[in-house]
Amino acid sequence: MSRLFLAPMEGLADYVLRDVLTSTGGFDGCVSEFVRVTGSLLPERVYERDTPEVLHGGHTPGGTPMVIQLLGSDPEWLALNAAHAATLSPHGLDLNFGCPAKVVNRHGGGAMLLADPEQLNRIVSSVRAAVPPGIPVTAKMRLGVSDTSLAIDCATALAEGGAASLVVHARTRDHGYRPPAHWEWIARIDAAVDVPVIANGEVWTVADWERCRAVSGCADVMIGRGAVSDPFLALRIRGQMDSSPSSEEWPTVLRHIVDYLKKLQTRVASRHEHGRVKMWLSYLKRTWPQAAELHAAIRRLHDSREISAVIEHCVATWWQPSSCMPTIRPRADAHAQQCHD
């Protein structure tokens, strides 16, 4: 039986969205956004804040096992932090060698490390030695920095360093997230290493999943933005829902959006709920045209309570094309209140 994993998505799928997406079912595991390691030992509160699943036996509220991902470039500090993170009951520790973000790459982390297979080996070896044998150490990589010339060398270095499995995002750093994903390279890597390889990249539909498995030769697949665009994608792949989305599913999607917003509103010091909801809707637009209309309806709103009222109204009316347009006058009222204060 093939396995499905929810990918780490820095800046997109924090633990709140991770909670919502795994609550729909279908995933065998998920990986956190990366916890950045520099030159210090991170306190426990960092993990409790960014990966609160550690407070619940390493599971999301829906019961999906969670793996903590670490990002850094120094083998010793990564090893020390991995040893500490291992005491918090995650279902594994993953090392990030795929992040293409410039702010990360400027400091020699993420995908930039793919230019140095020997350093990859040192990092994985150090972390593996520091972590108890019962906790898997895995790695996520891309095909290279600007080309694929070191892809096999990097994968081999990671496997020989002690990585229990590899997730391969089938693009280089310079490719970013531009299609296509080069799944044929995953097949070459899979043939070169003696550890399980999990395919990742450009899986948006059930048909994409089928092609990815066929081309890569991998049974297991990790899904990222495809799951954000269609929260039921894992269930469709499992055959538990229709393979194609339908408008009848939209009321259920709306309830998930309401759930997401409510969870965002309970976060300590969260002031960007409106942006998070709009970002998710921008992905949902790929799957449901109703998401585009809802996005337009809340586009100018910045108060999460106002956005919540609009979405709740949509839920109550089960979506009429014009029913989600706000009828409140938040901007003028809010400005008047600020002046009186």
From TrEMBL:
The active site is at C99 (proton donor). The record marks R36, N96, Y177, R276, K278, Y283, R299 as: Interacts with tRNA. Residues 6-304 form the DUS-like FMN-binding domain. This is tRNA-dihydrouridine(16) synthase. The keyword Protein transport does not apply. Belongs to the dus family. Belongs to the Dus family. DusC subfamily. FMN binds at Q69, K140, H169, N200, G201, E202, G224, R225. The gene is dusC. It comes from the Bacteria. It holds the Pfam family Dus. SUPFAM superfamilies: FMN-linked oxidoreductases. GO terms for molecular function: flavin adenine dinucleotide binding; FMN binding; tRNA binding; tRNA dihydrouridine synthase activity. Catalyzes the synthesis of 5,6-dihydrouridine (D), a modified base found in the D-loop of most tRNAs, via the reduction of the C5-C6 double bond in target uridines. Specifically modifies U16 in tRNAs.
